[in-house]
Amino acid sequence: MLKQSLGIIETNSLSSAVEIAHLMVDKFEVKLSNVRQLLNGYTTVFIKGELGAVQQAIDFGAGHCTEKNSLVAKSVIAVPHQELFNFIEGEKDE
Amino acid sequence: MNNSFALLEVNGFCASIYAVDTLLKNSSVEIELDEINKGNVLLKLKGNIPQIKYALNLAIESINKISSVVNFTILENLNPSIEREFFNKTKKHHIRQIKSEIKSQEKLITSQIEELPEKKSESVKVRKVKKTAVKKLSKPKEEIQSSETSDINLSTIERLRLEALGKKISGDEKKTEVSKPKAVSSYVVKKLSDLDGLNVHKLRRVARDFEEFPIKGRQISIANRDELMVYFKQILPE
To answer: Coiled-coil stretches, from where to where (chain B) (predicted)?
Structure first.
């Protein structure tokens, strides 16, 4: 099995994050792995999948966000380090 | 000498995760990630000085591809007391541990309550105390334990006293037996329709109040709502 790639896209607001997460999961073969919100409302969406799909999804999401001026940052990590997921998960509500 | 630190403030979570990934792959420093206000994230790096300088340059380079660095600094040979104040990795861990300990204590107490089904009024007391203790989260263990032990001590003392008094046992016992169910039986159930609004816990309590109920004690506490309703249908008229 191929190692899963990680795509990250950070937006201005929760609403746009939800919108692009929905679109990305709908249109491409990616899974939503996590969503995190910073204190000022910046919301980060993490998606997992194969590299090509993730790259396309992130490009699509970034394009959708720039139309609404809500994009903060985006990136794709092809082969994420195993320990990286400890930093992403953080504190989940139990 | 692994007691030098670097602080790196990054604009955005995305850039910080990207930087953490490159650092994990290319350097051997310890990394900690903290969220501070205004959407900035603080990266704390720990290691010796050359390692940290290399890692810092690497991180800044990778962050500038995506977002921007707000500020950074290197602290050389930090005093251990200051280190403890600012770099307490165990803080979040600690809260989680306390929560898990409280949960395990709750489980213990509930299991103990189920083993003593005849002492209903006491168990209700313990449950109330437990709820308040969970809300407070400050000194839950001690409160729970103290209340529990005091209740049990009281009951044993009473029992011993009654045994010592000989003939009075029967009368006193009847009084106590009469008084206990009054305190407990807040749900008066005579028809099957009375059970509609009750949840599983209340159903179990009602089931324990019935003397002719088909299953007893631990079996009641194991049974789920559907099973309990089947037994209630056998006993109660519609």
So the answer is: none
For residue B14, give the nearest of A39, A40, A72 by CB distance: A72
A-chain residues near B65 (CB < 8 A):
75
ipTM, 2 dp: 0.86
Burial class for B9, CB neighbours closer than 10 Å (0-12, 13-18, 19+): middle
Domain range holding B161? 94-173
Query: Counting Cβ atoms within 10 Å, is residue B134 exposed (0-12), middle (13-18) or buried (19+)?
Result: middle
**What total of structural domains would you count in chain B?**
3
Rounded CA separation A61/A36 (Å): 17
Per-residue pLDDT for B224 more than 60?
A: yes
CA B182/CA B127 separation, integer angstroms: 17
Q: Is residue B180 part of a domain?
A: no
pLDDT at B74 over 70: yes
Report the DSSP beta bridge partners of residue B31.
B45
Among all residues of chain B, which has the CA nearest to that of A9?
Answer: B14
Is A74 near chain B, with CB under 8 Å?
yes
B107 and B73 in a common domain: no
Report the CATH number that the domain containing residue B51 is assigned in CATH.
3.30.70.1710
